[in-house]
Design brief:
heterodimer; A: alpha/beta; Rossmann fold; B: mainly beta; Jelly Rolls; 2 domains; globular
Chain lengths: ~100, ~240
């Protein structure tokens, strides 16, 4: 799941993730959407993009729903670091 | 005790898209090496060669301090904050992407390639208000000294960013040298040789080699062959 308040950037990030045939991502534009989506679908990793006012609180909430969830702060907002951040996040949890 | 890491020019991740040839010191885009992710807060050091008239179409950024230093040629920049400018060799550009921006960058010349260092620094605060700036730098006109071109302080010399980082650049003649004293405890320095050959604390570096050093107070630079060098002091804990 990718979370970010900037609609166009979120759309770009989702497009880039979903261009990888091994990955599938859905997006949430705010805390409420993120929690609702998280309850509906199973995710391996949550990517935190820009503009979420209380990222720490949202991470706590998601981790209380699934203690194994990997939370990654996304930097850069585009293609440059995305793949690396996801691979690093998954590697840390020995899932990749 | 001083610690260091050496990245020789040829060990960088190379990409060739025809119009864009780039060498990535750290993992970027399709180049992924788990051992080369960052040096402290320095996350991206891309050595880009952009063909005449070509460039990066509109694309987003967020939460990153992005520094561009053209080494030759000129780059046209246009962004969602209504900034439109051409940045040339002899200038430095900075963008705090913060909550998000869109921009495009194109080689401003149809028939001359642009060489550009693109440097990304992790910000010390997420979701800041986006901002843009560019200034002249004069290191080529004032050789044999290090010129400060970036700091964390808007009132200090050079551009500023949201990070406890300082950049210095210098053009030196063979046999000259400089001492660099670190500005902040816990910081390290990544030295990148733009041209020529230098020794940094005894380590010989040639064109486009990079050398990161930390747990030190100062660096001794000796110029082995006429050189241009960029020093990037960044926090090591992020």
């Amino acid at each position: 799941m990718a979370v970010g308040a900037h609609k166009e950037i979120l759309k770009t990030v989702l497009r880039l993730i979903n261009a990888n045939e091994d990955w599938n991502a859905s997006g949430a534009g705010n805390e409420k959407e993120a929690v609702d989506l998280f309850k509906q679908k199973e995710f391996d990793l949550v990517l935190f993009g820009a503009g979420i006012p209380d990222e720490k609180e949202l991470k706590k909430k998601l981790q209380s729903l699934n203690p194994d969830i990997i939370c990654v702060d996304h930097y850069g907002g585009g293609s440059g670091l995305l793949k690396c951040e996801i691979l690093q996040g998954l590697a840390e949890k020995n899932k990749y | 005790m001083a610690q260091s890491i050496l990245h020789l020019a040829d060990s960088r991740g190379k990409v060739n898209h025809g119009w864009l040839k780039s060498a990535h010191t750290f993992s970027f885009g399709s180049y992924h090496d788990p051992k080369r992710i960052h040096f402290g807060a320095l996350r991206v050091l891309n050595d880009d060669h952009i063909a005449g008239g070509r460039g990066f179409g509109e694309h987003p950024h967020d939460n990153m301090e992005i520094v561009s230093i053209p080494l030759s040629g000129a780059l046209k920049h246009k962004d969602s904050m209504q900034n439109e400018a051409v940045i040339r060799s002899g200038e430095i550009q900075v963008m705090s992407a913060g909550t998000g921006i869109y921009h495009m960058e194109f080689n401003d010349n149809e028939d001359i390639p642009t060489e550009l260092l693109q440097i990304w620094i992790f910000p010390n605060k997420r979701n800041v208000e986006p901002r843009y700036d560019q200034i002249n730098i004069s290191y080529k006109e004032n050789p044999n000294r290090l010129e400060q071109i970036l700091s964390p302080d808007p009132e200090d010399e050079g551009v500023w960013i949201h990070q406890n980082a300082w950049f210095h650049i210098g053009a030196f003649e063979q046999g000259k040298g400089a001492t660099y004293s670190l500005k902040a405890e816990g910081n390290g320095v990544y030295a990148f040789v733009i041209k020529g050959s230098v020794s940094v604390n005894g380590q010989l570096l040639n064109e486009r080699d990079g050398y990161g050093i930390w747990d030190i107070d100062k660096l001794e630079i000796v110029v082995e062959k006429d050189a241009e060098i960029l020093l990037m002091e960044v926090p090591m804990d992020i």
